[in-house]
């Protein structure tokens, strides 16, 4: 089996590359990633010499480069993680989200049509369903929940999902889609809530919680997401969407307090800052379909996963310190300097 994994130098993609090379020693994994600010080649260092692995630095929006890669590799499957993934950046500058997340997806699927493929898998997000109200804990996102997006990021992911389903219906492309809740774990880029709070707390810097911090996210350990995708690409039904989530809802403020406690840092580091525009209140996944059809269940409890994650950031300071000492400084200044403390 030859699988092209796009976005494999990012957070979830790299964890998926490791999972697949480890579990399927006879598979060839080709990572296609153009190394944006979020892609990091040093993350893939441990597998660079693996004869079953190849890294290709190209963009999924570059049709010529993508077609050339298909001619060289004749992939059996494509798993598309490549995306602009940060909501706050999408609020500042939506355009690149449309290019990568929508047009890039179309280019990949055109290549699949042209050269043939056993499976095209789109890694999507629960954010395509919009949000749920805080006072209705009985409500969850199912695969039938209408698409109803809030941010340019989630809209671009929803656009891509619709295109994937259209390629299935119109051209018969054998597709699957997974819509997962918020992931956490090793190699998570430090602009996102959990790694940002860990890095700031370790540096005794303020912990910027948007608004009151009562927004709820449904956290899943990244390895459990990788296992779900592994199941879907092998056993999932073509043309289907599978929601992935582990019933682990927490408010942002709870998460930040847990991180303070685990690191022995004072909660006085927490600062409430101006809220995100259009901020989604609550995400919560109903994973019944993937459980019933494919037997998937999350394996890592949050209490264990967050400890493992914090330990990883303590053991791999060089990885994130290199990131936050570079261009990231400018980003942080720009994004947080203007957020008034409230
Ligand atoms: P990430 O930002 O950490 O990594 C994205 C990767 O894609 C980077 O390596 C980047 O270099 C690469 N990339 C970006 N544009 C590219 C392009 N034009 N061509 C080739 N490569 C490109 O993202 P992540 O958090 O690992 O998310 C991966 C996927 O999972 C995304 O599609 C995201 O929408 C989805 N997702 C993420 C979460 C989450 O909690 N992080 C949850 C559900 C779904
Ligand atoms: P994030 O990790 O950006 O993921 P997403 O927006 O895709 O869910 O943010 C998770 C939650 O944390 C979200 O409600 C916004 C909030 N948040 C903060 O309060 N402060 C921060 O500095 C960041 C990055 C996020």
Description:
The structure is a single chain. The protein is α/β, with parallel strands linked by helices and about 350 residues long. It has one domain (about 1-185, about 220-250, about 280-300): NAD(P)-binding Rossmann-like Domain (Rossmann fold), CATH 3.40.50. The protein is about 45% helix and about 15% strand. It has 12 helices and 13 strands. Strand 1 (about 1-5), helix 1 and strand 2 form a beta-alpha-beta unit. The chain is globular, with a radius of gyration of 19 Å. It binds nicotinamide-adenine-dinucleotide and thymidine-5'-diphosphate. The site of nicotinamide-adenine-dinucleotide has 29 residues, from helix 1, helix 4 and strand 5. Keywords: Lyase, NAD. Its EC number is 4.2.1.46. Belongs to the NAD(P)-dependent epimerase/dehydratase family. dTDP-glucose dehydratase subfamily. It catalyses: dTDP-alpha-D-glucose = dTDP-4-dehydro-6-deoxy-alpha-D-glucose + H2O.
String of helices and strands: EHEEHEHHEHEEHEEEHEEHEHHHH
Distance between the termini: 54 Å
Q: What is the CATH top level name?
A: Alpha Beta
Strand order of the largest sheet: 3-2-1-4-5-6-11
Bound molecules: nicotinamide-adenine-dinucleotide, thymidine-5'-diphosphate
Protein name: dTDP-glucose 4,6-dehydratase
InterPro entries: dTDP_Gluc_deHydtase (IPR005888), NAD(P)-bd_dom (IPR016040), NAD(P)-bd_dom_sf (IPR036291)
GO molecular function: dTDP-glucose 4,6-dehydratase activity
Family: Belongs to the NAD(P)-dependent epimerase/dehydratase family. dTDP-glucose dehydratase subfamily.
């Amino acid at each position: 089996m030859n699988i092209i994994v796009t976005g494999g130098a990012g957070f979830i993609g790299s964890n998926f590359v490791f999972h697949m090379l480890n579990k399927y020693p006879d598979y060839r994994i080709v990572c296609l990633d153009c190394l944006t600010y979020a892609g990091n080649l040093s993350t893939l260092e441990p597998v660079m010499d693996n004869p079953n692995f190849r890294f290709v630095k190209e963009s999924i929006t570059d049709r010529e480069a993508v077609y050339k890669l298909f001619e060289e590799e004749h992939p059996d499957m494509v798993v598309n993680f490549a995306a602009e993934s940060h909501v706050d950046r999408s609020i500042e500058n939506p355009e690149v989200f449309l290019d990568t997340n929508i047009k890039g997806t179309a280019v990949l699927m055109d290549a699949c049509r042209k050269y043939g493929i056993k499976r095209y898998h789109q890694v999507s997000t629960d954010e395509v369903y919009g949000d749920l109200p805080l006072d209705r804990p009985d409500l969850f996102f199912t695969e039938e929940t209408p698409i109803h997006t809030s941010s340019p990021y989630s809209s671009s992911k929803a656009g891509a999902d619709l295109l994937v389903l259209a390629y299935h219906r119109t051209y018969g492309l054998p597709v699957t889609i997974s819509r997962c809740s918020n992931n956490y774990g090793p190699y998570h880029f430090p602009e996102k809530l959990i790694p940002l709070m860990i890095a700031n707390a370790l540096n005794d810097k303020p912990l910027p919680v948007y608004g009151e911090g009562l927004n709820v996210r449904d956290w899943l350990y990244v390895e459990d997401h990788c296992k779900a995708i592994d199941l879907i690409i092998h056993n999932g039904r073509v043309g289907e969407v599978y929601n992935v989530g582990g019933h682990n809802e927490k408010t942002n403020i709870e998460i930040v307090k847990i991180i303070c406690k685990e690191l022995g840092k004072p909660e006085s580091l927490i600062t409430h800052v101006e809220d995100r525009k259009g901020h989604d209140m609550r995400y919560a996944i109903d994973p019944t379909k993937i459980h019933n059809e494919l037997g998937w269940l999350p394996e890592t409890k949050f209490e264990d996963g967050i400890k493992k994650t914090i330990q990883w950031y303590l053991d791999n300071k060089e990885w994130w310190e290199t990131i936050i000492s570079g261009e990231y400084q400018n980003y942080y200044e720009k994004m947080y300097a203007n957020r008034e403390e409230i």
